[in-house]
Write the structure tokens for this entry.
Amino acid sequence: SATVQAYTEGIRYAVTSIGQATTSVAMYLDAGHGGWLGWKNNMEDFVKTVNSLGVHQYLRGFASNVAGYQALGEMCDEYDWCLPMNGHAGDACCYDPCGLNSEWN
């Protein structure tokens, strides 16, 4: 769609322009809401999108929870550890105060 094309071209242009102009800036790409990014297919889509931009050499990293804050708590062993089908819902790292696990489909 035109929206997706405008987004990818805009991000690519902004990151490349800044990256070529100076090395004094640490750029972090918005990775979306932490709950959204935790689903395996969303993570794969995000990685594909970032790779398609061709700007990884200018990025310092990624930032999540920049708009919709979600408490992080204790880290899990794997990024998809808390998905309902994995049976770890009772683990301390799967504490879900926002109820995001119930939205998984």
The mean pLDDT is 83. Residues 2-21 form the longest helix (20 residues).
